[in-house]
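Morning!

This is the sequence you dropped in the shared folder:
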Amino acid sequence: MADSVLLIDDDADLRRALGAYFDRIGYEVAGAGTGEAGFEAFDRLRPDVVILDLHLPDVGGLDVLEQLKSRGGSVILLTGQGDIETAVRAMQLGAEHFLTKPVDLNHLAAATARVGDKVRLARQNARLRAREHEHAGLESLGVSPAIRELGRQIELLAASERSTVLLTGESGTGKGWVARVIHHLSPRASGPFVEVNCGGLSATFLESELFGHEKGAFTDAKERRQGLFELADRGTIFLDEIGDLAPELQPKLLKVLETKTFRRLGGTRELTVDVRLVAATNRDLMAEVRAGRFREDLYYRLSVMPLRLPAVRERSRDDRLALLTRILSDLVPQMPGCPSVTSAEALDRLLSAPWPGNVREMRNVVERAMILARGAGQIGLEHLPSDLRRSGGSGGGDRRHQPQALAEVERVHIEKTLKFHGGNRTRAALELGISRATLINKIKVYGLDV
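The structure's back. Tokens below.
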């Protein structure tokens, strides 16, 4: 995929000349004649490099520079005046280069290329950090043989970087999370990860989103726009709810998978991309094929390496504990002042609930409970939704007594075992008959200080 550049200059002739030059040397080019138009174009296109004129009719160039930097832009500043003081101020505000007009095109192209390289390196470093985080997350999937096998399959899929992956399972089982893990553990981790939901979008809009469009392709196509397949070049594209893909788009997707080429909407030029596809659905795609709603050839092309994610209710209690621990670990940094541990009663209800909405529902309930428990030492039964508070026990008497007693016995027993072994988690886990990872999860959830 070509690097992109946004030209912000009120001189239309200069914009056209620079645009033609950058287009000729392989850049995707967009232009704006004012600061406000530049902001709008930047937010919409997220270009790799912005070339900005210092003197604009509506907003001062340095103010535009400051705004663009705050939005993550990389800016080269152009001016007709060789003002040293302004140049120093521009560099202090974060300009990558400060060039005077008339600018030498070769010099400008070299500067733009250097900035583009710097942007790519920063993105790669961010993705590598994300990769390390996702690998840690994979270890927190769970400890049962079935979940460990699922983790092993995810690692195998990640290593097979050119194979298409089809993730199946009920809504909310974490298919999007697994897609990101596959990307971040793969050789493509330094490339982009692009996600799109195929459900609820018109065929024309989704075609434009996936494949882009040329200027004038339809009424509102005011300028050329890259599609998500272009943006995902050398990386991964995740198509969620693939079962909802419009019939007229299915042959176009099949063509991309088979030839790695496509055309923008309204375009004539064949574009080539190097993209891995991960698709997900909660539908029975084979049934959709039999019903004539999904192409059989596309189904077989997608299901080269299918992977089914189990519903939360199908997972062991220890696996649900690992899932709950990961959710709490993810939410704690985002919610300062909220507790990260639960009471024995609350923990038992969270681990015993059927969770028809799966991981998504569990995360929402835990986040709500953390908000309600802000300032408290732990998440208690009173912070859970009423249906979970009512769900404990079966039979007469105090329905809450047995779940509370079992969880409390476990907490006390773990604490005593750890103290007996001087805090050595490996020896304590052996005595308790559980894995070290499960013991660590229980220590976190119970908030034990040993």
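Headline: DSSP finds 19 helices and twelve strands in the chain.

More detail when I'm at my desk.
O.
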